[in-house]
Amino acid sequence: MSSSSESTVVRKTALNSAHRQLGARMVDFNGWDMPVEYPANAARKSGGLIAEHMAVRSSVGLFDVSHMGDIRVHGPAALQAVQHMTFNDASHLAIGQAQYSALLYPTGTFVDDVIVHRLGEDDYLLVINAGTREKDVAWVRDAAKNFACEVEDLSDRYTQIAIQGPNGWRTLQKLTDADLSKVKFYWFTQGTVCGLPNTLIARTGYTAEDGFEIYIPSDEATSVRVWNELLAAGEEFGVLPCGLGARNTLRLEGALSLYGHEISDTITPWEARLDRFLKMDKGEFIGHAALVRQKQRGVDRTLIGLEAIERGIPRDGYRVVDPEGRGIGNVTSGSPAPFLKKNIALAYVPVEYSTEGTELGVEVRNQIVKCKVVPTPFYKRPKRTPATGSAALPDTVASESKPRQ
Amino acid sequence: MAYPPEFKYTKEHEWLSVEGTTGTIGITDYAQNSLGDIVFVELPKVGAELAAGKTFGTVESVKAVSDLYAPVSGTVTEINAELATSPEKVNSAPHTAWMVKITLANPGEADGLLSVVDYEKFIAEEK
User: Fold this and answer.
1) Per the count of CB atoms within 10 A, which of A40, A345, B28, B68 is most buried?
2) How far apart, in whole angstroms, are the C-alpha atoms of residue A259 and residue A112?
3) Which chain B residues contact residue A338 at CB under 8 A?
4) For A303-313, how does the pLDDT look when each residue is reduced to its tens digit (9 = 90+)?
């Protein structure tokens, strides 16, 4: 888990006191005081990272993700502005639909990845990462300045809670009048949640599982009340509050990118294998020209999935070596995978090492741990019956399963 | 969880229990709690020489790697093989799930370690 010392003032979400009351272990995450896990205690028999991870895979878990930022872009030229500043094609979005996208520098490398929601006719909401909030807001303002639209930073206005797992919809349905079975994956609706009208309810998440994210007013009383009502509603399903630890292992099993790891200001979407979200044909956008050039030249390195075939845990930053022991790349994220019960990693290596089944090594404290290249995502959630309203993982979020040529 | 009063402790959160010339080493409840779910314990081989204050192995949780430091010097006579298959025992019973047993090189060395009172004071300040 990375932490930053850039900011000396530690920021807190409106749920900070609720986390502390639950006995959470808190960490500094990109300048935010956030729960990393909620150990078991007298009131809660099961807890800790692995139990939290498994609760999301098998039933339901609750995350405070209020540190994420929210930028609204609205006005007559909002679509053109969004098209100019993101790599996916927002012109296909219906009102009530969302898409995974990214902001790129002119060099074709990442400012951040985002989820773009189309709120209304000329009205878009970009949900961005915590660690890049100020940078993103400034960047979006600048990118939108020649378009007839307004950019509003709504980050501090919302408490964002993620209700993730196959029983996420059952948990949330108890507290809302919105018919959640009608909300497809990567769509959203607005409804009353815990008595709060017009609450944004999105079927999105970062766990490679079905689930919802809700956006409620960020005052402490309201935030804590909704958090506690969700915990109570999920009790019959064995809900657990989940920290950033489980959030990281869940997203890693799903091979979902994390800014500063798989994507950064030195990595392009071609290298990160996010091609399926990259709509080169939609017209001009920032970074387009550089990406055309890189495509013509070909990429030197690519993101691969690794699975350890010997004892040892590849972790963030560890060196990847070829069978002769020569350094060929680095692990961007690596961890034990609690559901898969394997040690897995994502890493950048030269393209010639990316074929499935290739044996590579990862240097773990001066020892080489043998790993093999495996398809990603490492974990794909099982298809469920239509009654749950949850379709199979659509291609808007699944990573590619084959190395790119 | 209570810290056994007969143990000696280090500021790196190991415990040492001494019987005659045999020392048993493990990590404390505070250590396991801050590491979280432990998934891997790497220990030296029987016969290895431990030097006081130097690392002799590692313990890994899902999200962190932590070195094990020898509270005192000695020769490894036994390792807790159970931890290879059940590392989670360190979480559930840190003060009984020992890691290594050693023959103490210098039994007087243990006197320099923290008493239970000093250790509890130390971790209260850490929090």
Assistant:
1) A345
2) 6
3) 37, 62
4) 999 999 999 99
